[in-house]
Specification:
The chain has 185 residues and is mostly beta strands. It has one domain: Lipocalin, CATH 2.40.128.110. Helix content is 4%, strand content 54%. An eight-stranded antiparallel barrel has the order 1-4-5-7-8-9-10-11. A hairpin with a 2-residue loop joins strand 8 and strand 9. It is elongated, with a radius of gyration of 18 Å. The protein starts with 11 loop residues before the first strand and ends with a strand. Pfam families: YceI (PF04264). Belongs to the UPF0312 family. This is Polyisoprenoid-binding protein.
């Protein structure tokens, strides 16, 4: 099996490999630049039904405390009641409600994202990036994609006005996914 193996040959259930995956985000800061971050603690799985993609499923659970923007003060603020309310809502979850193939290697995954106790639908555009058998004999697949959400839809409303106009934190947040997963035996 090579990186060009057709997805049609990969029907099965997969477990996300967090040590080779990333769940990240990008948000505008001070109206002039972007801050990037990631969640370092997450688990997830998905089932691929190559013959009927609409029967495929996916789920992901992220530990809010694992947020990492390479700045401890900012991370502490993001874990607080101003943003993730981590003590009351320690997990962010995504559960798919529909998966459709929209191109040779492109998929549209629709699902429910729960953050701060609020559940809203989101759609993630994913690209199947290939598959391979790793040195341990595991069938491994890759997917990459993103979606843009408005943080206020989940009640993440904190902000600070800037003297020159505008606000400190943009409302739009890009969620980015780089997923490597291994097929369950």
């Amino acid at each position: 099996m090579s990186a060009t193996t057709a997805l049609s040959e990969l029907t099965g259930t997969y477990t996300i490999d967090p040590s080779h995956s990333q769940v990240g985000f990008v948000a505008r800061h001070a109206m002039v630049t972007k801050v990037r971050g990631a969640f370092n603690d997450f688990v997830g799985s998905f089932t691929i039904d190559a013959d009927t993609p609409s029967n495929s499923t996916a789920e992901l659970t992220i530990q809010a405390a694992s947020i990492d923007t390479r700045n401890e003060d900012r991370d502490t603020h993001l874990r607080s009641n101003d943003f993730f309310v981590m003590e009351q809502f320690p997990e962010l979850t995504f559960v798919s409600t529909g998966i459709e193939r929209v191109g040779d290697t492109d998929y549209r995954v629709t699902g429910d994202l729960t953050l701060r106790g609020v559940t809203k639908p989101v759609t993630i555009e994913l690209e199947y990036t290939g598959s391979a058998v790793d040195p341990w004999g595991n069938t491994r697949v890759g997917f990459e994609g993103s979606t843009v959400v408005n943080r206020k839809d989940w009640g993440v409303n904190w902000n600070a006005a800037l003297d020159a106009g505008g606000v400190l934190v943009g409302e739009k947040v890009t969620l980015e996914f780089e997923i490597s997963a291994t097929k369950n035996a």
